[in-house]
């Protein structure tokens, strides 16, 4: 049973549990700081497929399939798969869902998709509409580059404000259970637009959305940044994270050492990704590996995971529109029984 | 509070009510059989905008805004807008949501979007997570043609199996209330693929998904086609509807005179649309005008609305993939107090 808190937040009183998770990333991501946390690292980014698009599907298939296995379930136990991706008409997730032959709700929140799927999935589970819900998303550097920017073959130079779309996928299984970290709240984001038009500066476009959702969350739940062991934005990257910290400070909220950003975290400095990682797969892979592991270990007791998305298309950019952003946030609380 | 029924269906025990609705269509649709039912008919398809894409947004904006007004609310009462559209990265709905500045969940179910948004919206309302949820979608013939097929300026010949993407939008407001037709059940669809590869024959690609969801619905709810005053598929068109009736009959279910399809219904025979209408806006506009009006009048007491979507992209077609389909269904029961 749910409860509305303030303007944009809902509380899940039955506290859906995370009972399974899986992360898979590409070769480059597997050379970054979290290489020991990901469940699987591709040897090459085609993953044995004939196209990068098919490789993206295969990553999602493995992430969903293995998260279900890790939850001790089989596919027939799954009541719903909810997810999406960055490709036009979310073909990666739709085609992957076809393989599993279970009910599917397609969503699109750009790089906020992991948090959006957790918010929707938690609602179905918390309200006892469904028992087992899988939340998943993924991206591939090479499919995103050729769809949003240029074919890789052109060898275009990347501007210093750009981010690197993560090759990776993550999947989380939710259920009402006696054990598992809990999704206790979700803050549903508004579309926010500060008029940024540079499609190579996503961090700047998304930072205002992150600010909007974080401030609403703190107001709705009567909490402050200090109440969380970790506040984790999706993929603002280095520049975007700095903009967010500035914007928050101007509004009277100081994001301190407990703040980090998945885009900023994903790669080592010598990996030449400029502002860091981006794409649905970025925070999906880090959330479903490092973050849940640190909750297991008790390093974090509660995490505010706020994934951010830039809601542009190549056409909206060509038509001169600015880039709106959105940010959905979920709170994950540690189950102290896990990892003991 | 919810209840899972069988394999794919959920029952909404608090019965969310339809408290506001609005439909808007293009000039061609306004010359069809439902011209007296739509709330607004465009005088020209650019709707005073500089591009068809901006016209699509403006239709959605009017549909959402007026449905909120029809519900006797103002925008600040809205807890959530849930919707999507056919354009890449669902820019029409995202940009429209920006205008309203309320929480937004973007979804993608191709032409099944209206039913998908009603299923998700009803869950949030039924479980008392949120009070007022707006469900909306729309499409525009001229934006869909140039994205999925050819620029209109080329004047390409249309094959006889093709459908005509409807210029139109629809919006529904849900709330727990004492009055209003009720959403009582939702059957969440599986992605179904019979290997159809002809992107000009969407009806054939989507009919198996409609069959899958309808049969699951009847089994889950222990009902038969005769239990509904109207079984309404989204936009299979004429050919797709015939295929569905055949498929159902082979499985022991006879769809009789209480079956119809929004694609088949949208245009008059002399309007040269071949198999009829398609696009999210097709069933969204008919549902939010004619269907709700006939529920008001008591012509229908219960309606099984099963919207169908084809989950292809231009890229999946170019890479030789087949066209998976999906179908989500919701049951609407008449409130006999309405219209009296």
What are the key terms here?
9 helices; Peroxisomal Thiolase, Chain A, domain 1; homodimer; alpha/beta; two-stranded parallel ribbon; 13-stranded mixed sheet; 15 strands; 340 residues
Structural class of chain A: alpha/beta
Which pair of chains has the greatest number of interface residues, and how are they split between the two chains?
A-B, 61 and 61 residues
Work out the strand percent of chain A: 15-25%
Per DSSP E runs of 2 or more residues, the count of β-strands of chain A stands at 15
Unreliable parts of chain A: none
Describe this structure in words.
The structure is a homodimer of 340-residue chains. The first copy, chain A, has 340 residues and is of the alpha/beta class. Chain A has 9 helices and 15 strands. Chain A has helices at residues 52-70, 91-100, 113-126, 141-148, 202-221, 237-250, 262-266, 280-297, 314-318, and strands at 2-5, 9-12, 17-25, 40-41, 80-85, 104-106, 133-139, 164-165, 168-175, 181-187, 230-233, 259-261, 277-278, 302-310, 325-333. In chain A, strand 1 and strand 2 (9-12) form a beta hairpin. The longest helix of chain A is centred in the middle third of the chain and has 20 residues, at 202-221. The relative contact order of chain A is 0.19. The mean pLDDT of chain A is 96. At the A-B interface, strand 1, helix 2, strand 6, helix 3 and helix 9 of A face strand 1, helix 2, strand 6, helix 3 and helix 9 of B.
């Amino acid at each position: 049973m749910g409860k509305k808190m303030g303007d944009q937040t809902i509380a899940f009183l039955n506290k859906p549990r995370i009972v399974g998770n899986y992360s898979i990333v590409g070769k480059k991501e597997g050379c970054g700081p979290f290489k020991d946390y990901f469940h699987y690292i591709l040897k090459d980014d085609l993953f044995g497929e004939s196209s990068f698009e098919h490789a993206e599907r295969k990553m999602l298939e493995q992430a969903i399939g293995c998260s279900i296995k890790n939850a001790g379930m089989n596919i027939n136990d799954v009541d719903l798969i909810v997810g999406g991706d960055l490709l036009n008409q979310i073909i990666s997730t739709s085609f992957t869902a076809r393989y599993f032959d279970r009910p599917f709700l397609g969503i699109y929140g750009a790089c906020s998709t992991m948090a959006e799927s957790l918010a929707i999935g938690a609602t179905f589970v918390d309200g006892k509409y469904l028992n087992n819900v899988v939340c998943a998303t993924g991206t591939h550097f090479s499919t995103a580059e050729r769809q949003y920017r240029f074919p890789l073959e052109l060898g275009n130079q990347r501007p210093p404000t750009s981010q690197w779309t993560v090759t990776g996928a993550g999947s989380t299984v939710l259920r009402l259970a006696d054990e598992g970290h809990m999704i206790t709240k979700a803050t549903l984001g508004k579309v926010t637009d500060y008029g940024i038009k540079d499609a190579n500066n996503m961090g700047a476009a998304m930072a205002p959305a992150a600010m909007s959702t974080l401030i609403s969350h703190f107001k709705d739940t009567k909490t402050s940044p200090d109440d969380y062991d970790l506040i984790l934005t999706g993929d603002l990257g280095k520049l975007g994270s700095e903009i967010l910290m500035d914007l928050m400070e101007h509004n009277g909220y100081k994001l301190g050492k407990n703040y980090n950003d998945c885009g900023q975290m994903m790669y080592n400095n010598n990996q030449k990704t400029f502002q860091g990682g981006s794409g649905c797969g970025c925070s999906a892979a880090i959330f479903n590996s490092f973050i849940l592991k640190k909750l297991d270990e008790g390093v974090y007791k509660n995490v505010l995971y706020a994934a951010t998305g830039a809601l542009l298309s190549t056409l909206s950019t060509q038509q001169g529109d600015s880039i709106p952003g959105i940010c959905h946030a979920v709170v994950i609380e540690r189950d102290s029984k896990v990892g003991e």
